[in-house]
Amino acid sequence: MNPTDQNATEPVNRRILVIDDNPAIHQDFDKILRGVETHAGLSEAERILFGDTASPDEHPLFEMEFALQGKQGVELVANAVSHGRPFAVAFVDMRMPPGWDGVETIEHLWAADPDVQVVICSAHSDYDWHDFVARLGHSDKLLVVKKPFEPIEVMQCASALTRKWQHEQVLRAQVASLEKVVTARTEGLEAANRQLRHIATHDSLTGLPNRVLLDDRLAQAIAHADRDRQQFAVLVLDLDRFKRINDSFGHRAGDELLNEVARRLGGLVRTIDTVARVGGDEFVLVIGPSAERENAEQVAQRAIQALQAPIHIAGVDVYTSPSIGIAFYPEDGISAETLVAHADAAMYCAKERGRNTVQCFAPGMDTVTRDRVRLEGDLRFAVARHQLELHYQPKVDTASGDVHSAEALIRWRHPTLGLIVPDDFIPLAEESGLIAGIGEWVVREACRQCKAWQRDGLPPIRIAVNVAASQFRHGNLLGIIRSALDDAGLEPHYLELELTESAVMTNPEDSIGILEELSRMGVLVSVDDFGTGYSSMSYLRRFPIDKLKIDRGFIRDVMSRPDDASIVKAIISLAHSLRLKVVAEGVETPEQLGFLKSMGCDQYQGYHFSPPIVATAFADLLRAHAAGEEAFTEADAISTHSKLAAYRRSPGA
After folding, report:
1. Which tens digits make up the pLDDT trace of 85-107?
2. Which residues contact 581 (CB under 8 A, 6 or more apart)?
3. 152 and 38, same structural domain?
4. CB 287 within 8 A of CB 215
5. Residue 34: which of 53, 56, 19, 15 has the closest Cα?
6. What is the pLDDT of residues 147-175, one digit of tens each?
7. How far, in Å, CA of 40 to CA of 54, rounded?
8. Is residue 219 part of a domain?
9. Same domain for 398 and 365
10. Last residue of a domain, one of 127, 151, 173
11. Is residue 598 part of a domain?
12. pLDDT above 90 (res 347)
């Protein structure tokens, strides 16, 4: 709204003050501005001057007050301002003995109210206009009217100046409002810019500096170190087996863990140090300046100690540990990139040397990192280049020694490195996001080979394949299984999926739906590494599973550690009470096998019977040791002890 529009909707301030030492002058002003004799002519004059549409009978309603001396008038002005009812116009006589003259009065008036419009009334003055300017300055709030004046002059001054006063107030209010808007928007833009800068330089999850800000901090650290001839340390910290926590409890739990780790690490360092998160479960600490080797190692050890305490996530106390690598400037590198790379290489060396430990960079360590990057690059093409293969380890009936099934175990036949076992490349596949493609290839190849053996006339057996937790939770597992079975022409009951205990216990309600669908298809499901996770007995009863596999860690010392023997016995008893079969893995001695027989374990696998072997060798073994085609009946193939037994034709042994 412009001032004119706003003025049209707001009442005009028509308060007028007359300061004159002659009471008769007061009466003249009162007659002119509030009298009735000249109203018609004055109103018509206003209409001509100001374009009003008022009728000739209308007249402005001025509110008058009077003072005989300048000091009295200034007091009235100050009092009016304090009560929020200021005067719009003051008519001031030039000579008012014995008090202030007009100019001095105006000076005091404007000191009390800078906005009041002033009309000087004088018959003869000791001042000319130049004197006014010299005393009062160039002001657009000052007019001079010579006595004697015409009533129309007074009326015009009163009408014009009250409107002028009103317009100035409206304009001032609008400017103030605009300034507030501009200020608010400027502050908003500054806040938005600060937020954008923070987002660009900080990790969105933990609030720690990200790689962008880390690079800047490293550049500053290098500059200060060069200037002061000092050193500083770079620590790269990576959480051990963090992916297992993500796979077991979900990404939200993983985020909670990362936030808690960030909080604990932040409490270890000084304000001049930096703790940054550069991605995933990797953190970088910049310690300096003058970070002696011993001081940096002490910080690393405190980090290990700080992460020893359990972190309560999803109702479970989760334990984590870090592997830490340290590099020093300028000894281990003179650029930020080299320092971080060398600290990273030392961190991987710490992982290879048992995890939960600290390693300082030494020449040659970076070859490990380069080899790891090179291995990941080779792994990306391993499937397309037909470098992956499956080896098969028999699952043996504990009582009869017959072979009814086998577990398919992946191997990588690298063109230069030879045969690589899963422990050396599966973690890399999980970290690099290649596990889904590799896992699908395993399922398809196992189904193809199983059907090929049947076509070759070998006794039909069931093939078990391992499914990664990420495949089970996020992949199109059901679609892949259906496609693999259809493409191979294999009946579903010849396929068994092995899932880790932690994988099925993550979001158990979702797991039940997937497991039930697999059971309807006719595919068997085993819980692998049982006893190492966080199974809930209530869920275990509800899961449509067929077997429990006892982790090899319990079998290894079953003959020497009574606790392990008790655990194995309890697992077998629990499984049988739930009408589940039990498979023991990692059986390597006759004594272990004898113990399992005495406990009633259903099946076993391990080097005592056979290591994992290639498909051709397994075919020869199958011919020699299988009980025969008739021994592995249709009932055996479809047997299940799960809650969905009704979906299958008959229970089996």
Report:
1. 999 999 999 888 898 988 899 99
2. 546, 547, 548, 575, 602, 603, 641
3. yes
4. no
5. 15
6. 888 889 899 999 999 999 999 999 989 99
7. 11
8. yes
9. no
10. 173
11. no
12. yes
**Residue 19: Cβ within 10 Å count:** 31
- Reported as half-sphere exposure (CB side, CA atoms, 13 A), residue 346 has a value of 27
Please report where in the chains the tokens 């499984």 appear, as a residue: 575
Structural domain including 16 reads 3-173
Identify the pLDDT of residue 354.
83
Rounded Cα distance, 56 and 48, in Å: 11
Evaluate whether residue 589 is within a structural domain.
Answer: no
Question: Helix-strand-coil percent breakdown of the chain, rounded to 5?
Answer: 50, 20, 30
Q: Which residues pair with 237 in a beta bridge?
A: 283, 324
Q: Let me know how long the chain is.
A: 653
> What's the CATH code of the domain at 236?
3.30.70.270
What is the distance between the alpha carbons of residues 293 and 332, in angstroms, rounded to a whole number?
12
- What pLDDT does residue 650 have? 35
β-pairing, 603-605 vs 388-397, is antiparallel
Last residue of a domain, one of 346, 375, 404: 375
Same domain (yes/no): 343, 457:
no
17-47 confidence digits (pLDDT tens): 999 999 999 999 999 998 644 444 444 544 5
Reduced to 3 states, what is the DSSP secondary structure of residue 313? strand
d(CA 219, CA 597): 66
Same domain (yes/no): 504, 637: yes
φ/ψ bin of 333: left (φ > 0), alpha (ψ from -120 to 50), beta (otherwise): left
Classify residue 370: in a domain, yes or no. Answer: yes
pLDDT of residue 117: 94
Task: Kindly state whether residues 43 and 169 are assigned to the same domain.
Answer: yes
Handedness of CA 570, 571, 575, 576 (dihedral sign): negative
Nearest to 340 by CA among 216, 224, 213, 233: 233
The count of C-alpha atoms lying within 13 angstroms of the C-alpha of 607, restricted to the half-sphere facing its C-beta, is: 6
What is the average per-residue pLDDT within 174-202? 90
Q: Do 340 and 234 contact (CB within 8 A), yes or no?
A: yes
Structure tokens at 525: 């499901």
CATH number at residue 9: 3.40.50.2300
Q: Are 601 and 398 in contact (CB under 8 A)?
A: yes
Mode of pairing for the β-strands spanning 142-146 and 117-122: parallel
H or E stretch at 302? helix 293-306
Residues with Cβ within 8 Å of 452's Cβ and at least 6 positions away in sequence, in order, are none
Shared domain for 220 and 158, answered yes or no, is: no
- Same domain for 347 and 399, yes or no, is no
* Domains contained in the chain, number: 3
- Residue 401 CA to residue 40 CA, distance in Å, equals 128
DSSP reduced 3-state for 142: strand
Same-domain check for residues 345 and 412: no
